[in-house]
Specification:
The protein is built from 24 helices and 36 strands.
């Protein structure tokens, strides 16, 4: 379990800006164009996270090179799409995040002619948004001449590539911009360890923060792949990214494809290579896909590849697609590059076409464990990367102004499993609220959900997923149900209630928790027991702080607000939630001292059998609160889960008839689904029967087969129809 503590920032180097220069927003000179580039890029992902802390103005790329007619059709495509982007002007994307396309001429001469107008238009646009003293983030080095005209409170330079190696750029101009930015920037951010080691000494302060990943998006795709991809025969070998001669090796790929004529190679992304560049009939260029569709494209492939051209650019690169590939769980084959070294146990590498083709065959025959690949990047969220950079800026005296809604950040010490920004909800108590009338203001510091145990439950074993990721209805997962109960508690307390999920080493992490921006942490030590895990989770809180500890594999059928009010009004050290029949509901409200002082820092301790008696022995005040309704239903077996889903259906429709077919499900003609849950991305073939069953995300019930009183996982096929219905 992560030990939480306040981490002292690294000491600043170089002269600091005045402390009064606290930024009131962010202006980012992007390295890409929001409207036609993949949105998985470093700057785009970082800005979306920072927008939860400060208002962000993302300025579409002003360019580093001048397109020329020698590029053929690509020249006209580049010009058309840039003109379309400029016509958009300023566009709000979501609360606190805007995209601006300035009118600017590319190339050194064009930029020199329009620099003054660019600076004035960006400054004017930022002021319209209330940004007067910006943190200026530069991901396009040619913006160097504009930065200081914006009166920045701080400057961050994103050195995530060797920009001077990009084809078609004025290398001397880019080198000059790069050198200037390293001198004037408060922090220079690197994502390549090799470039960081080589160039850190030339920066005022260098920070190595490599790429993150949208783990929730890539681990559990929620959209269907494009039809053009689904039509390809298997096995499908996928590549997602720009297909150009600068990074991608077309000759190498064609040679590999020729050696594997019965494999379909799906290339997904913009292509700048000339028409007819590949003569292999099994290579299919499917064009670019929206970022939201990329995860489903990866999931539809049987193996994923990175056939890179050897070059100084690739030698220094740290491609974001590597972590996206890992998050998808699919086997990976790549040509070697430096940043691949720390993932060498999970990625097959080959430097020649013959070896690469052999590695693909081996990857298909022995795909390995998808969960191991996902687990390697579970702590690599973009939110944790953004928080690292924010901590560094704060350490330089550039405290971030938190706007409404605020962010609740948990700072983890060394060895932390994760560090995530958690959006906080605020509530102003209405006149006459119960806690206002009684004069007692109940307050919890966190809700800690314990996911797992000494042995995974039958439900977890069969689904191979965290119970929090399972769907109780078309709109609600188990995690959503918990967040609904947490929102009710926030309505009666005076501060946000962050949710932390702690899963054990043997259980799968809850991937969907990342989409809900919930902190996900992994126990670093096995066999601590629930009390030991709870103690480790709360060691960083003050002893008088109160928290909620709950078993994640529960469905609370009614509000927990009465539990919190009774706990606060009675001044209890521990309040145990009980079901109507007196059985424990798996929910405890606890003063942290009762965990920190009673539970040993090592060894196993159970909650009910060992910890509670120990609390009573030391004089702790313990009370029992009976939950209304059916209390908190356990979710350890298929039958228990379906019973909870029936309860949800009864609350929504007034009856307990259960037939949950989630979005993204394909139901074939003549198929029957009754008293069952079919989760997103699943397929029920024509004429199939599904009864009293759970069909997991991405699983398939083949045509004319039976799935009766069972759990259908993606790797488990139900019985054929000939066996009859049980």
């Amino acid at each position: 379990m992560t030990t939480l503590r306040v981490r002292q920032p690294d000491p600043p180097t170089g002269p600091l800006r005045p402390s009064a220069d606290e930024p009131d927003g962010v202006i980012c000179f992007g390295g890409e164009d929001w409207w036609y580039h993949n949105r998985g890029h470093y700057d785009m992902q970082m800005m979306q996270r920072l927008a939860g802390t400060l208002p962000v103005l993302y300025v579409n790329s002003i360019g580093m090179r001048l397109p020329t007619p020698r590029e053929g059709p690509m020249f006209f495509r580049r010009v058309r799409r840039k003109l379309r982007s400029m016509r958009r002007g300023l566009v709000p994307i979501r609360d606190g995040f805007w995209v601006y396309s300035p009118v600017v001429l590319p190339g050194p001469l064009g930029l020199a002619l329009t620099r003054g107008r660019l600076a004035a238009s960006v400054r004017r646009t930022a002021r319209r948004l209330g940004i007067k003293r910006p943190l200026v983030w530069v991901a396009c080095p040619t913006a160097a001449g504009v930065v200081e005209t914006l009166d920045p409170a701080a400057i961050v330079y994103q050195r995530t590539d060797r920009y001077e190696q990009f084809p078609g750029v004025d290398r001397e101009q880019v080198r000059g911009c790069d050198a200037l930015l390293k001198q004037i920037s408060d922090v220079t951010v690197f994502c390549s360890a090799a470039v960081h080691a080589e160039e850190a000494a030339s920066c005022r302060q260098a920070l190595l923060v490599d790429h993150g990943v949208d783990l929730d998006r890539f681990a559990i795709p929620v959209t269907n792949p494009p039809t053009t991809l689904e039509r390809l025969p298997r096995p499908r070998i996928g590549f997602v990214g720009s297909i150009d001669a600068h990074t991608f090796d077309p000759v190498f790929l064609e040679d590999v494809a020729t050696r594997l004529p019965d494999h379909a190679f799906a290339l997904i992304g913009p292509c700048s290579l000339p028409p007819g560049w590949c003569r292999a009939p099994n290579v299919h260029c499917l064009g670019p896909q929206p970022y939201e569709n990329v995860p489903s494209c990866l999931a539809a492939c049987d193996a994923l590849i990175m056939p890179w051209r050897r070059s100084p650019w690739i030698d220094a690169c740290n491609p974001v697609k590597l972590k996206e590939y890992l998050a998808s769980g699919r086997p990976i084959v790549s040509t070697p590059f430096a940043e691949l070294t720390r993932f060498s146990d999970l990625v097959r590498t080959a430097a020649t076409p013959a070896a690469f083709a052999g590695a693909i065959r081996l990857a298909l025959e022995q795909p390995g464990d998808a969960e191991l690949r996902r687990a390697r990047v579970v702590d690599e969220s973009w939110s944790s990367k953004a928080e690292t950079i924010l901590r560094t800026l704060t350490g330089r005296g550039l405290a971030t102004t938190r706007r409404t809604p605020p962010l609740h950040a948990v700072t983890a010490g060394p060895g932390a499993a994760s560090l995530r920004l958690v959006p906080a909800r605020t509530h102003t108590p209405a006149r006459g609220d119960d806690h206002t009338r009684s004069g007692v203001t109940p307050s919890l510091a966190a809700c800690v959900l314990l996911s797992g145990g000494l042995t995974p439950s039958p439900l977890t074993k069969s689904t191979r997923r965290s119970v929090l990721d399972l769907w109780l209805s078309r709109e609600q997962t188990v995690l959503d149900a918990w967040l609904e109960r947490v929102a009710e508690l926030e309505m009666i307390q005076t501060r946000p209630l962050p949710v932390r999920v702690v899963h054990d080493l043997a259980s799968p992490p809850p991937w969907l928790a990342l989409r809900r921006q919930v902190s996900v942490e992994r126990e670093p030590v096995a066999v601590r027991g629930p009390a030991g895990v709870a103690r480790d989770a709360c060691i960083g809180y003050a002893p008088e702080t109160h928290v909620m500890i709950a078993a994640a594999a529960r469905f609370a059928t009614s509000s927990l607000a009465p539990l919190l009010r009774e706990h606060a009004a009675g001044g209890q050290d521990v309040t145990i939630a009980a079901n109507g029949d007196g059985s424990p509901a798996g929910i405890y409200l606890v003063r942290c001292a009762m965990l920190q002082e009673v539970v040993a820092p090592v060894g196993f301790m159970d909650l009910k059998e060992q910890w509670l008696p120990a609390v009573i022995r030391v004089g702790g005040r313990v009370a029992v609160h009976h939950l209304s309704g059916r209390g908190a239903l356990p979710l350890r077996t298929r039958a228990q889960f379906l019973e909870a889903a029936r309860r949800v259906a009864a609350n929504a429709a007034g009856h307990g008839e259960l037939r949950v077919v989630c979005p993204g499900v394909k139901i074939g003609p003549g198929a029957v689904v009754t008293d069952s849950i079919v989760m997103p991305g699943a397929i029920v073939g024509p004429g199939a029967v599904v009864a009293r069953s759970i069909v997991c995300p991405g699983a398939e019930v083949p045509p004319r087969s039976n799935a009766v009183s069972t759990i259908v996982d993606a790797g488990v096929l139900p019985a054929p129809r000939e066996r009859g219905v049980a």
